[in-house]
Amino acid sequence: MMEGVRRVVTTHDARGKAVVLMDGMAPNVRRRAATGITSTLLWVLDHVPARYSGSADFAEVEIGIPPPQHGVVCRVVDFPPVGALDAAALERLKRESGLEQHRKPGEAPRHPFMHQTRSVDFGLILEGEIDMLLDESEVHLRAGDVVVQQATNHAWVNRGSRPCRIAFILVDGEEIRS
Fold this sequence. Notes:
Number of strands: 11
Strand content: 35-45%
Helix content: under 10%
CATH architecture: Sandwich
CATH superfamily: Jelly Rolls
Strand order of the largest sheet: 3-4-5-11-6-9
CATH class: Mainly Beta
Number of domains: 1
CATH topology: Jelly Rolls
Distance between the termini: 38 Å
Radius of gyration: 17 Å
Largest sheet: 6 strands, antiparallel
């Protein structure tokens, strides 16, 4: 398992001066037992233009994969190598992933992790390597690479031997036209 994610959040004090509001390990961490995938929610905007939180922690929410309508989500996801998953874990994932609601209607997924959200996703590969599966192709990505995904059907599969960490910023988008 990878180290947690340090999150530093700034705000303004009563005099209008920039100050640090929060500095520590991000507390909203979810680990899926079936896959070992760990998601750390860093911040959620419920609409854009953004409103400022004052002293509130905008990551103290329960949220699925996509951002809120007209909103933005920032999270870091750690993907363990899939070699660590056995057939039973993959089958459990199919049942428990919650990805079913984010799949193309009437289409059998290429991989249990396949999903599609109504969003533009910016994925910054921070550590490790990972494969991004698309409908009929795939791309191998390494630390330093950036993906701009425009509501495409996809899955993330770590076929390597080390965990892969990706920072994601998801921005709500228009309805998907297939």
